[in-house]
């Protein structure tokens, strides 16, 4: 199984990152499975007919990265997936791919860093707006700020789905508000309605 999280991107679309914490010690075959899971999830949820898959590494070259990344890259190149190659951390939200694959150790660090960085950035911007903008400009900017805050708020997504299991499981944040719990329930309904795990099971059974 793999935990998949959705991030916003610069082009207004969304990107799926997996795994973000279910498996900290992985083999290349596991990351290949994550890629198939993420591709199916992107097809069903992001409505991308043939999602682009990228492997997170420290460089775009095939020979960059640790043993796990290099061996996984070979498997992805030989697969039927729309694998576009390695991507770096700065490319995750650039919109070049719909699916980013990594092991759960790296993915969880990315998730927690993004959560903290978003909170810090929004806090700094909010304080500067209050100090620097005239009243009318502040009202207009506040609307824009609130929209950006909404886009980055984990509560809008509800929770993180656990892919590759029999049934539906959406894991919510430990500090979830009632809004987040509500959206987690709605996400679970969409997940079940799209029969995502059944599709994943069929694809993985084919080998």
Automatic annotation (TrEMBL):
Substrates-to-products reaction catalysed: a fatty acyl-[ACP] + phosphate = an acyl phosphate + holo-[ACP]
Top-rank taxon: Bacteria
Record keywords, A-Z: Acyltransferase, Cytoplasm, Lipid biosynthesis, Lipid metabolism, Phospholipid biosynthesis, Phospholipid metabolism, Transferase
Main location group: cytoplasm
GO biological process: fatty acid biosynthetic process; phospholipid biosynthetic process
Subcellular location: Cytoplasm
Keyword Signal among record annotations: no
The enzyme's E.C. designation: 2.3.1.274
The keyword Acyltransferase belongs to this UniProt entry's keyword annotation: yes
Coiled coil region boundaries: none
MF terms in GO: phosphate:acyl-[acyl carrier protein] acyltransferase activity
Cellular component annotations (GO), alphabetically ordered: cytoplasm
HAMAP family: PlsX
Quaternary structure (record): Homodimer. Probably interacts with PlsY.
Protein name as catalogued: phosphate acyltransferase
